[in-house]
Amino acid sequence: MSWDTIDLDRDEGVATITVDRPDRLNALNTDTLEALEEALAEARDARALVLTGAGDDAFVAGADIAYMAELSVAEAQAYAELGHRVTDAIETFPAPVIAAVNGYAFGGGCELALAADLRVASERAVLGQTEIDLGIVPGWGGTQRLSRLVGDELARRLVFFGERVDAQDAHQHGLVGEVVAHDELDDHVAGMAAELAAKPKHALQAAKEAMNQVHETHQSAGLTYERRAWSGLFGTDDQREGMRAFVEDREPEFE
Ligand code: COA
């Protein structure tokens, strides 16, 4: 499959999805968002996924403001549902997802990054939930996912004021996990993804699913989920191989 504004590359178990609409700073119109949904479905067998934006300026500058300007309530609802399907597909993607935030990540762009497992920012990145100044609120998960990363007080400040934060501040707030030199971002993230792709995939998937429960359930239900996920992994070859390799003092060879 190929799309006009989304690229999907695959290399040794690592899939890289690039939003490729640089003349609009990779803003997500409906076609691009639908293509992104399809690309995420197509990449589901990957062992690690990288999400980034084309060009030197933007990760994703948000939902497409020109498209949204005249939407009716019903049309806005359909657009929100599409955005939610995409961010849910990132959050529940079976393998770890790394957002390589290579520039502006505003509004819906910030929300794509929030749905990823890990965020690595270029020193040039600027992030923010800027919707308030467009007369709306974050609509693709930002009102829910931001506070779990940065805490409720700061999340409210970012959403209420629509503040744009640079990479260093984003790192200090926990909005991104790491900041690297702009020219090193792609190689750095590719290295992380390759390392993850070499890990036992069932265990990684179980870790991700169990850790996602933190945001879905009360702690007691999450702990029950964890117990089941943990014991279920004892039916996999990777568990046997990983433990036997340790006992036999050799490197494991995962499936
Ligand atoms: N939707 C639609 N088009 C967008 C866009 C968006 N979210 N963000 C940028 N663009 C377009 C601009 O309209 C411009 O188009 P043009 O060349 O036809 O004029 C082009 O992308 C380049 O953007 P420009 O504003 O000229 O670049 P800049 O470097 O001066 O500023 C930003 C970059 C990101 C600071 C600025 O574009 C911006 O604030 N964008 C909106 C961000 C936002 O609020 N996103 C949340 C949406 S929910």
Automatic annotation (TrEMBL):
GO molecular function: hydro-lyase activity
CDD domains in the cross-refs: crotonase-like
Cleavable signal peptide: none
Pfam family, one: ECH_1
BP term (GO), one: fatty acid beta-oxidation
Key words of the record: Lyase
Family membership: Belongs to the enoyl-CoA hydratase/isomerase family.
The name this protein goes by in its record: Enoyl-CoA hydratase
